[in-house]
Write a structure and sequence with these properties.
Helices cover 88% and strands 0% of the residues. The chain is built from three helices and no strands.
């Protein structure tokens, strides 16, 4: 995931959009001709959310490692 993506990605919007799709499927009143495209979109949203969270996790780990290294030098 490019660094730029971390700043541009609207996690909250994507998460709420995915929640909305899940709610539609849970209700069971989604038409079959709309189900597949919505499911595909939901899968793409889930993948993007997962990528974003992994990038954030890596960044946090890097910050912690840098902090641990700086504390050891003092």
């Amino acid at each position: 995931m490019p660094k730029q993506h971390l700043q541009e990605f609207d996690f909250s919007h994507a998460y709420h959009e995915l929640e909305g799709l899940v709610a539609e499927f849970e209700k069971g009143d989604i038409e079959i001709n709309q189900a597949l495209p919505k499911f595909e979109h939901g899968v793409k949203l889930a993948q993007e959310l997962k990528k974003y969270l992994k990038t954030v996790e890596n960044k946090v780990e890097k910050i912690i490692q840098e902090n641990d290294n700086n504390n050891g030098e003092e």
